[in-house]
Design goal:
single chain; mainly alpha; 2 domains; two-stranded antiparallel ribbon; 7 helices; disordered C terminus
Length: 101
């Protein structure tokens, strides 16, 4: 099993530590899996456990670039962006805490 397949399993298990370990080994949170952003794999499982927030934070901590600003608008600033380098950028652009329609 390769690292990407193992990362997908860690996402399915909602193992934030497992996700962090794969990112620390060099997998980018910005890669595509089966034609979609890897983060979409996590989003498809947001109701599975209460550990979703920790898993999402692992993606952000390892440099996730949010391409979909509409998706970003669903995350309150305190959800995963507190004390993160991404916070300032998103506050400047006022993307969080409102729905962009």
């Amino acid at each position: 099993m390769n690292d990407l397949e193992e990362l997908v399993i860690q996402i399915e298990l909602h193992s934030a530590d497992g996700i962090k370990q794969r990112f620390a080994n060099g997998i980018s949170p910005n890669i595509y899996f089966k034609g979609n952003p890897l983060f979409d794999t996590l989003l498809g499982r947001y109701t599975v456990t209460s550990r979703f927030k920790d898993c999402a934070k692992a993606f952000v901590d390892y440099g996730l670039d949010f391409i979909d600003k509409l998706l970003l608008s669903y995350f309150p600033s305190s959800f995963i962006f507190s004390s993160n380098k991404h916070t300032e950028h998103f506050e400047e652009n006022n993307f969080h805490n409102k729905l962009l329609c």
